[in-house]
Amino acid sequence: MRVRDDVVQQYHLVPEDFVKHLFSTLVLVIVVVLLASLMFGVPEAAPLTIKGYASKNPVAFEQMALRALDGQGAIASYGPPYNGGSGSVQTRLQSAIGIIHPVNAATDFILKPLAMASQINPAIGRTLRQFRAATPAQQGAWESAYAAALNHGTYQHGAVVTPAGHFGPLPALMNDVLLLGKSGLMSGALMRNGSIVTRFDNQNYLLFLQGSPMHQAAKPLALTGERWGIIHPAVPGYPGAWWMTIPTWVYQWSFVANNAAADALALSIGFLFWLALALTPWIPGWNRLPRYLGVHRLIWKDFYRSHSGEPPASDEKDRKHAS
Questions:
Q1: Where are the alpha helices (DSSP H) in the chain?
Q2: Tens of pLDDT along 263-279?
């Protein structure tokens, strides 16, 4: 075991206080971080909020709210784990898991917030009761007619105005939703947990903005999936999540990108890569790859150059010698 003896003998142990070095390094890093934050600030993009989206895009906001109400929205027809829809079901496993985070878009996103607001403004309660008193067929007719009218809607004097039609109470109802959104009260209503007053849940807040709002915010910043968005910065001039390059690359493979189960395929491929790495020591042939590649010889090239006439013994010979 001459090679290992030489390695050991070339270095001398000296007493060191590693705890002192650890804390001194920690203090130094904290000081540098605080100074850098004071000098340069934190590069954060403006957040996407319900209040901001309703204020800037009132017509689109009403269209999104109407799609939640009539069951045509991204979450209303999503499927497990939120509801019984099939709009975003990718695999049988997703269906088998079932509804573990139940969401009724019409009730949770629209009707419940309006019911909360009606406790302050009774006029909202009257409009809400009129809508609920109608038959499902009548509600559907109002929703279809108003959805078509919103395509020609404009925002005037604090309300969305559409061509005349038979919409029932929907224009007033959607305007109430718009006012809730613009006031910021919609956010609190969506996050409030009805069973535990002091607990807040961000799930419905985030799901409400799924679809058009998030795509509109992401597209100008090249953050959409087809443009490798996850590795791009939200603030121009700063680095993005470059470490996500490999997962993003998997999503660009044609058989993944064009498949309805793209997320499931990408996660499965990533799991297989992880499994191969985790089981490397026990996979015959694969576990010899480091020795075949010889990367260790590049790292320790000076050592191997000085001992070129004495090739290192295998681990098995070393163990026999040591025993």
A1: 2-9, 18-40, 50-56, 58-70, 92-97, 112-118, 122-133, 136-150, 170-183, 185-191, 203-208, 212-218, 245-252, 254-257, 262-278, 289-293, 295-299, 301-306, 315-322
A2: 889 989 989 989 988 99
